[in-house]
Amino acid sequence: MTVIPVYNTLLVPDSFVYLKTDQYALLAGRQPEAEERVILLATREAQRRRDLTEESFYPVALSGRVAEVNENGFAVIRTGMRVNVDMLYVNIDHSIELTVSPRRDIEDLEREVEQEHAERLKEEILQTVQKYDWGRQVMLFIENLHTVSEMAAAVAVWSSMDAAERYAILEEDSKNARMAALEKMVYEFLTASRAANEAAGEQKKDYQKMYREQAIRRQMEVLQKELDEMHPENISDVRRFERKIEEAGMNETALAEARKVLNRLKQEQNGSMESGMLYDYLDFVTGLSWKKEEAQTIDLHEAEAVLDADHFGLEKIKKRILQQIAVMNLKRQQSGSILLFVGAPGTGKTSIGQSIATALHRPYVRVSLGGSRDEADIRGHRRTYVGAMPGRIMDGIRRSGASNPVMVLDEVDKLGVSYNGDPGSALLEVLDPEQNGTFTDHYMNVPYDLSDVLFICTANSVDTIPEPLLNRMEVIQFQGYTATDKFQIARRHLLPKSQTAMGIAPEALEVSDEAIRTIIADYTMEAGVRGLRKCMDTLCRAAAVEIADGAEKVEITPDNVKKYLDRKPMQHDHILTDPAPGIVTGLAWTRAGGDILYIETLLTRGSGKVTVTGQLGDVMKESVQIAVSLVKSMFPEEAEVLKENDLHIHVPAGAVPKDGPSAGITMTTALASLVTGRSVDPHTAMTGEVSLRGAVTPIGGLPEKLMAARRAGITRVFIPEKNMEDLDDIAPEVLEGLEIIPVREVREVLEKTGILAE
């Protein structure tokens, strides 16, 4: 049976439920078909299907079937009996599985009594329809209704009952009580309808007053204008907007539109919905800065000092920012590429944007795009819609109060796509220097010059950014911080800020250097410093309790760190102590930094089947197939064992999804180790993509991977030869103690690990 979740809909047996075919398809996941059996599930609140969970539904549902899919675009569902939802499970693909059982009614209502109530109720409805002339079609529709349930379902759309009250009727077992509740709902609707029709009649009488009122208003405008000139402090909204429009410095198109809207505002009655919308529009466009700011000369030494004071490390990134500032100084205008800062959370991508604004002496504004799935978030809503508002870009311009702010577009990699459009495509117009000089927000409906805005974008990864959008930006990688960097950041920035935030005087709290290093080593496992900042906050909160209790000074050492953080140290991955054939250490890149992973292989008696576990993505599964083919070609005799046994490949941890090509060389080495029976030294790790011809091709995320290797105790790392130039960007302390071996072919790895004789 097709499962249809519905919200705030009256569900009662022996009635009809009308759903538009597109709404039916959205709720059920398929188009309606005649005679299709359905289960109608009542939800507790309005939710999109992908957000539904097991707790979203009430425990009583209603069965039914699709009686008709009419030409007007409606699926008519004839409801049947009530059912209990005994088991319900929402799958990961948002489909719903459930088990139901019949829910019996309490037969406390005689058939003759029910029919008598239905006839009386029908007569009441028909009298109302005839009295207020609702039309012949409505009359024919009502005449075809025969039960109280059908009549209640027909008027339920206009009922003021909420979802819980509607469900209470469905849950009621007594037929008599259920009929009483339905009758009450219908009579309330009839009473409200009569009152509304009587009010409409009274409204006609008010129209005669409007013409007189308009004439008086024209006279009042003339008098008000004279009063405004006599008392400027009490100026009216219309006069205030007139002045602001003339002084704003708008372009010709914007000026014409603003004057047009102002004339409409003059004609509207105060307090009307239309006047409120017009007021909001004028308030927004006159609140923007339309005048181009004069280019200022920026002191590069001052800018460099600001960047150094706010951020430790990031030397390559600061150098690139200073280059951008130097070009802007020479050309006396905004120029250069749109910068895209890419890196793990907590590496300073967003905060460095604020430092750039300070260095340029410009306003700073941040626009978060994470989770945006509507094109209107960028371009705004058209004013024809109720509740229309400008897009996030123009809203940010207004908040900045200038036409040339530094605008950070945060989390551009988390833009979504829905039936409301693609915000990523809309962002192209914003970032393209050839187009953003005449950017038109749908709400404003006039062009605005964004060419002076310095846009800076941030992302955790470029994988999900649309290619046309990515081509308009220059990618700058934010590498993970080393332990030394984290120590300096914690000592210079994080700890003082936490002390200030908690109201702790500098002399009242002493945190030793070794305590900070202990926190970095044992309580954080990240590329950035966001977790480290939380640890500093936790330390200061715990110290604040003791200081508030009378302690003069709190000292934190490695011995009492655990007490103040009130949690156990994190369990970092370490190398295996017992080497075994078929197990090889690989290096992985994650959005939170680098990590090590183990490729585990095992042969079991079977017929040559290959099993892959560990939540591997399509790319890693392809790496497995390439590795099997390479091992069979390089070790034809030893690989015969794969025909007589099943091969199981596992990548811990099994609960974490993994994907990417950089485990190709690790997969191949693990399989070669398994079939030859020669183990690989656990102190050896490797990363690289492999091709079917046996070549080792370059990968990304090398700095984070080497940091993970150093942290885990690895001493030797195989990397693709073409990645050797990336070592120039890696801190010397990361490379210290690591033997980096560049390789071009799989054979070199197998020879140097002892699996294949040199």
Characterise this structure:
Helix content is 43%, strand content 18%. The chain is built from 26 helices and 24 strands. A 7-stranded mixed β-sheet has the order 18-19-17-16-20-23-24. The two termini are 65 Å apart. The model has no long low-confidence stretch (mean pLDDT 84).
Which secondary structure elements does this structure contain, and how are they paired or packed?
Blueprint: E1 2-7, E2 16-20, H1 21-28, E3 37-43, E4 60-69, E5 74-90, E6 96-102, H2 111-131, H3 136-143, H4 148-155, H5 163-171, H6 175-230, H7 237-247, H8 252-267, H9 273-287, H10 300-310, H11 315-331, E7 338-343, H12 349-360, E8 364-368, H13 376-379, H14 392-400, E9 406-410, H15 423-431, E10 439-440, E11 447-448, E12 454-459, H16 467-471, E13 473-478, H17 483-502, E14 509-511, H18 513-522, H19 530-548, E15 554-556, H20 561-565, E16 583-590, E17 593-605, E18 610-613, H21 618-634, H22 641-644, E19 645-650, H23 664-676, E20 684-686, E21 689-690, E22 696-697, H24 702-712, E23 716-720, H25 732-735, E24 739-743, H26 746-752
Parallel strand pairs: 1-3, 7-12, 7-13, 8-9, 9-12, 14-15, 16-20, 18-19, 20-23, 23-24
Antiparallel strand pairs: 2-5, 3-4, 4-5, 5-6, 10-11, 16-17, 17-19, 21-22
Helix pairs in contact: 2-3, 2-6, 4-6, 7-8, 8-9, 10-11, 10-12, 17-18, 17-19, 21-23
Low-confidence stretches: none
Structural class: alpha/beta
Strand order within the widest beta sheet: 18-19-17-16-20-23-24
Q: What is the average per-residue confidence, as pLDDT, rounded to a whole number? A: 84
How many β-strand stretches?
A: 24
Q: In the CATH hierarchy, what is the class of the largest domain?
A: Alpha Beta
- Residues in helices, as a percent range: 40-55%
For the record, the count of structural domains works out to: 5
**Molecular shape:** globular
CATH architecture of the largest domain: 3-Layer(aba) Sandwich
Gyration radius, in Å = 35 Å
**Mind describing the biggest β-sheet?**
7 strands, mixed
How far the N terminus sits from the C terminus, by CA atoms, comes to 65 Å
Name of the CATH homologous superfamily of the largest domain:
P-loop containing nucleotide triphosphate hydrolases
The total of helices stands at 26
